């Protein structure tokens, strides 16, 4: 990036998630942006945030680094949130004291760019405009998806209206946009046509941060097989996702109930990794009350990245039957670890997975069931086909993504 530019990275999303020990995909992206930019442009990078009191300001870099290390340790189980109320609020107060926003300094460079990698506070266009005015900055924003607008039936109540507000803020204020996939770019271009705006858009796939070290992880974390109390020859499938209707968990649960009927104790195992989301009563009823689920389907809501990648590596295949995605990062993570993927046949999945995964329509229950049966076999030909295809697959990197961001910054 040109030496006359300064990047101000917004950490508001991470600051707002202090009560959550398990990161979402958006949380992980904001962390990746911070780490990658610190490596690439440490002398041209500053941090800022809006806290829970609505106060905006700069975060000194030394304090931001302490905060990022703290969040990373929280995600990986090295520290934990105190369980008692008084201790919990003391913990939160300490972090918010560390991250208390400071005044915005005068610009010592020719151009300042405010960079936001999450949708945090984009519903408030007036607030966003005041931040840009205070910073005297251009604005670049990363778009994760337009799913609540394209598929309002999968969003929270009023989710579509809120996302339209976010996209209107981007349309009105952004000087440049990074899309995480060409599918996201296309949908945003369609949105821009309605608002009659023209904004430079660059598509850059999200990187994959593989931290898995087989020997180290096994020494620190219990293996998937130890946790389930089974031997390593038994097939285990894994799905990494928040439990919500768009993710199509109900398809898998109905398949597993049928597999238990057909195969009994020879049924493969299904591990669901992710917190419980919204509008998911039918899914939770099956998880909590269906007898067939009790010995073959297991749910884990709090896994650190290291342990999650260890378990993914030990699974027979990653399953991703979701109806809609902005990108599909677990697919890239699985392939990079040499793990086969069975996923829904949607544009975002094909974009990230290329020729490697097996693509199946998300409503083709029989097709999914037959694939699970086939991949459960120790000598599956379809597994071998994927393993060979992986040799030609290009790993998306954070370095390439951040290069695209900095190139866009140079053009402003």
TrEMBL record:
Pfam families assigned to the protein according to its UniProt record, in alphabetical order: Glycos_transf_1 (PF00534)
Gene3D superfamilies assigned: Glycogen Phosphorylase B
Alphabetical list of InterPro entries matching this protein: Glyco_trans_1
Keywords: Transferase
One example GO MF annotation: glycosyltransferase activity
Domain Glycosyl transferase family positions: 225-352
Name assigned to this protein: Glycosyl transferase group 1
Source organism (scientific name): Zymomonas mobilis subsp. mobilis (strain ATCC 10988 / DSM 424 / LMG 404 / NCIMB 8938 / NRRL B-806 / ZM1)
Native organism taxonomy: Bacteria, Pseudomonadati, Pseudomonadota, Alphaproteobacteria, Sphingomonadales
């Amino acid at each position: 990036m040109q030496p006359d530019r300064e990047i101000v990275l917004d950490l508001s999303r991470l600051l707002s998630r202090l009560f959550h020990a398990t990161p979402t995909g958006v949380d992980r992206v904001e962390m990746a942006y911070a780490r990658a930019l610190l490596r690439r442009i440490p002398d041209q990078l500053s941090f800022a945030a809006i806290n829970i009191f609505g106060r905006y300001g700069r975060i000194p870099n030394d304090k931001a680094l302490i905060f990022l290390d703290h969040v990373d340790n929280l995600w990986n189980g090295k520290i934990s949130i105190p369980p008692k109320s008084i201790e919990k609020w003391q913990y939160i107060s300490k972090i918010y004291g560390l991250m208390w926003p400071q005044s915005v300094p005068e610009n010592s460079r020719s151009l300042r760019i405010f960079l936001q990698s999450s949708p945090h506070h984009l519903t408030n266009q007036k607030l966003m405009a005041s931040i840009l005015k205070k910073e005297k900055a251009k604005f670049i924003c990363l778009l994760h998806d337009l799913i609540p607008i394209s598929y309002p039936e999968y969003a929270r109540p009023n989710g579509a209206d809120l996302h339209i507000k976010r996209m209107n803020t981007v349309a009105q204020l952004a000087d440049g946009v990074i899309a995480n996939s060409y599918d996201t770019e296309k949908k945003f271009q369609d949105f821009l046509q309605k608002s009659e705006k023209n904004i430079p858009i660059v598509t850059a796939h999200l990187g994959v941060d593989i931290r898995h070290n087989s020997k180290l992880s096994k020494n620190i974390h219990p293996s998937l097989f130890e946790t389930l109390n089974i031997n390593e020859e038994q097939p285990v499938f894994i799905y990494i996702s928040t439990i919500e209707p768009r993710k199509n968990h109900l398809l898998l649960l109905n398949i597993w109930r049928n597999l238990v009927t057909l195969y009994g104790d020879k049924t493969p195992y299904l591990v669901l990794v992710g917190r419980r989301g919204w509008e998911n009563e039918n899914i939770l009823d099956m998880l909590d009350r269906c007898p067939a689920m009790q010995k073959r389907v297991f749910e884990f809501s709090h896994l650190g990245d290291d342990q999650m990648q260890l378990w993914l590596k030990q699974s027979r295949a990653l399953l991703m039957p979701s109806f809609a995605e902005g990108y599909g990062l677990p697919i890239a993570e699985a392939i990079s670890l040499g793990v086969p993927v069975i996923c829904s046949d949607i544009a975002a999945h094909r974009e990230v997975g290329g020729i490697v995964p097996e693509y199946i329509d998300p409503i083709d229950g029989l097709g999914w069931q037959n694939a699970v049966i086939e991949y459960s076999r120790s000598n599956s030909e379809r597994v071998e086909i994927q393993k060979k295809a992986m040799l030609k697959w290009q790993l998306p990197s954070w370095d390439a993504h951040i290069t695209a961001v900095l190139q866009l910054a140079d053009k402003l």
